[in-house]
Design goal:
The protein folds into 2 domains: 313 residues, BirA Bifunctional Protein, domain 2, CATH 3.30.930.10; 92 residues, Anticodon-binding domain (Rossmann fold, 3-Layer(aba) Sandwich). The two termini are 40 Å apart. It is an alpha+beta fold and 429 residues long. An 8-stranded mixed β-sheet has the order 1-5-6-11-10-9-7-8. The protein has a 5-stranded mixed β-sheet with strand order 13-12-14-15-16, sandwiched between helices. It is elongated, with a radius of gyration of 27 Å. Helix 5 crosses helix 11. Strand 3 and strand 4 form a beta hairpin. The protein has 17 helices and 16 strands.
Length: 429
């Protein structure tokens, strides 16, 4: 095969993989809808003036923007910046505005295992509404989706205000706090010693760096961590709110573990309060499967008025990897394949296929003029459960022959009877 040029950091999906991905998205979408979120859609491109405005994404993340310099545009890095622009342009919308959006974003990152340049995110956000209540609603929606998907996960929760207060308590100058938080956020990648070394490089004394690392690791339970940080903060309100958030989340009866983790920072600068990160819980490596947080100032920059907001995103690609999408057994949406013995049987076969489609079934049909053996081989290759065979006898009787490819059993049926059998088979799966 010729060496075909192909971009780095992206991937093709085979039919079974694409079908599996679609089923993941449909599951997430149904959960979001069950929580009362409504869908919007925004363009894949935004102006660089928006994407780079006030360095909202942070200097490191801005380096990962895919730019279309001829038009001063860029592919969206995430869907939150697009939502901020959308809300500023559509201020007639009622608040709170509960939106979901599932789409692709692009990041000029270095490709590696489980890290891609083109990724699909499934976001839920609430603009307006009451703090803590809206925080709980978006987190619970995402956790319910992970539960429905069968993902083994945990969600880590922190608060930027707590981190700012703790850093101030340790004597970290305000001008260094953002850089310190970005370094803390790399704990999973660098480890404790690596983060300590990076903090010292930023200009912190060893004692200060060790104090921060102790703060991050303090306590073995959520309550112990909150008690500890409450004792060192001047402003106790963020701790009180975090306790209330945990209490509300317990009422949703979600399945994943919830852990207060002060190393969870999120590297994007627009976060102002509570932040979340979902982690896969299987295997030696743990991967982030989604993240989010509260961004109370972002929309106001463009809307000209204060519009507090909170949101969370599910990383569809990471969920696919976690669930072993490449092993997905289903290759087609069709419920049955219609084969015909001779070319003269094709029009009757087509009529039977269309009749089944009219009865709500998904039907594939031989369009290649292959012999019956090849048609059955095709049906087996696509892992059909059933095939309908049309020959002279079936056409003469005005019926179809329905074969179960698993058991090999056959029945001579009307199209209505065949439809009932196929629907019954679908219901048993």
């Amino acid at each position: 095969m010729a060496d075909v040029p192909f971009p780095r950091g992206v991937r093709d999906l085979l039919p079974n993989e694409a079908l599996f991905r679609s089923s993941i998205i449909r599951t997430i979408e149904k959960v979001y809808q069950s929580f009362g979120f409504y869908e919007i859609d925004t363009p894949a491109v935004e102006t660089l003036a928006l994407l780079k405005g006030d360095k909202t994404l942070g200097e490191e993340n801005q380096k990962e923007l895919f730019e279309i310099t001829v038009e001063n545009l860029g592919f969206r890095y995430d869907q939150t910046m697009s939502l901020a622009r959308f809300m500023a342009m559509h201020q007639e919308l009622p608040l709170p505005f509960k939106r979901y959006q599932i789409g692709k974003v692009w990041r000029l990152d270095e490709p590696q295992k489980n890290r891609y340049r083109e990724i699909t995110q499934a976001d839920v956000d609430i603009v307006g509404g009451k703090r803590i209540v809206t925080d709980a609603e978006v987190v619970a929606a995402a956790m319910t989706a992970y539960d429905r998907l069968g993902v083994n996960y945990m969600i880590r929760i922190s608060d930027r205000r707590i981190l700012n207060g703790a850093l101030a308590a340790f004597g970290i100058p305000e001008k260094l706090q953002v850089k310190v938080m970005r370094t803390i956020d790399k704990l999973d990648k660098l480890g404790k010693d690596g983060v300590s070394a990076e903090l010292i490089k930023l200009g912190l004394e060893r004692e200060g760096a060790e104090g921060i690392m102790e703060f991050i690791a303090k306590g073995s339970t959520n309550e112990e961590r909150l008690d500890y940080v409450e004792g060192i903060l001047k402003d106790k309100e963020p701790v009180k709110e975090l306790r209330e958030l945990l209490s509300l989340l317990s009422m949703y009866k979600v399945g994943g573990e919830i852990e207060v983790d002060f190393s969870t920072v999120r590297g994007i600068d627009y976060y102002t309060g509570v932040v979340f990160e979902t982690m896969e819980k299987k295997g030696e490596m743990r991967y982030s499967m989604g993240s989010g947080g509260r961004y109370d100032n972002l929309i106001g920059k463009y809307a000209g008025k204060e519009l507090p907001a909170v949101g969370i995103s599910i990383g569809v690609d990471r969920v696919m990897d976690s669930l072993g999408f490449e092993m997905a057994p289903v290759y087609t949406y069709a419920d049955v394949f219609v084969a015909h013995v001779k070319e003269s049987n094709f029009k009757y076969a087509l009529g039977a296929a269309n009749a089944l489609r009219a009865m709500g079934l998904n039907v594939d049909i031989n369009t290649a003029g292959k012999n019956l053996a090849n048609q059955l081989g095709y049906a087996n290759a696509l892992r059909f459960g059933y095939v309908i065979i049309i020959g002279d006898e079936e056409e003469k009787l005005g019926k179809v022959k329905l074969r179960n490819l698993s058991s090999g059993t056959e029945e001579l049926l009307t199209t209505e009877e065949a439809a009932a059998r196929l629907k019954d088979g679908k219901n048993q799966i």
